[in-house]
Amino acid sequence: MPVAIITGASKGLGRAVAEALAARGWDLVLDARTPEVLKGTAAALEEYGTRVTALPGDVTDAGHRAALVAAARRLGGVDLLVSNASALGAEPLVRLEELSPAGLRRALEVNVVAALGLVQEALPLLHAAPAGAVLTVSSDAAAEAYETWGGYGASKAALDQLAAVLAAEEPGLRVWAVDPGDMATDLYAAAVPDDDDPRPDPVSVVPALLRLLDERPASGRYGAPALLEGRR
């Protein structure tokens, strides 16, 4: 069966994607920072009859990234790498004049440096896969200027550029950067805790990501709303 590595997989969009792939029979290697929550997610996904390896840890740790890829190798390889783990840089978000260098550094380390490090670690297995693919979770904050979203948005813009260059350098792979749009996630709640407007469940975004896997369009940046509407 195909194998996916998914970071930030214990809840939110990461868990929703993992569950959709488990339902399709994919074997999974899951990462998250909270062991108890990740363990519960893995147990739920194993009910689909798939093999699930759950490795708690921090994606900024090179040893942890190597362990994720080693676990995937034991399951048969890496067909899909989903870089979903994200850091805001400040919780709640703050204006740039207040953003600490340490906070910005953390956002860049998690959202960009770790994502690249994991790709580098997984590239040999992605090359060996019949249809290797990398999916990075972007944000509209990478392309639009929103007050207080500067550090996070800058990190996601950098991730978009890394994905674009990776696609140019690795024409044999599919590399998709996806803006999922608004979602009700813990990350958003931490970013803007006083915003209680209703937002879509992350599960509603999953069909857009599955469309990419099913149709394998050209590498590039995609918006989930357009994919859900049948556009590219």
Automatic annotation (TrEMBL):
Keyword Signal among record annotations? no
Pfam families for this protein? adh_short
Q: Which Gene3D superfamilies match?
A: NAD(P)-binding Rossmann-like Domain
Stored SUPFAM superfamilies: NAD(P)-binding Rossmann-fold domains
Task: List UniProt keywords, sorted A-Z.
Answer: Oxidoreductase
Q: Does the keyword Oxidoreductase apply?
A: yes
Coiled coil segments of this chain: none
Domain of life of the native organism: Bacteria
**InterPro entries (alphabetical):** NAD(P)-bd_dom_sf, Sc_DH/Rdtase_CS, SDR_fam
Q: Which family does it belong to?
A: Belongs to the short-chain dehydrogenases/reductases (SDR) family.
Mind telling me which PANTHER family this protein's record contains? Answer: DEHYDROGENASE/REDUCTASE SDR FAMILY MEMBER 7B (PTHR44196), DEHYDROGENASE_REDUCTASE SDR FAMILY MEMBER 7B (PTHR44196:SF1)
**Entry protein name:** SDR family NAD(P)-dependent oxidoreductase
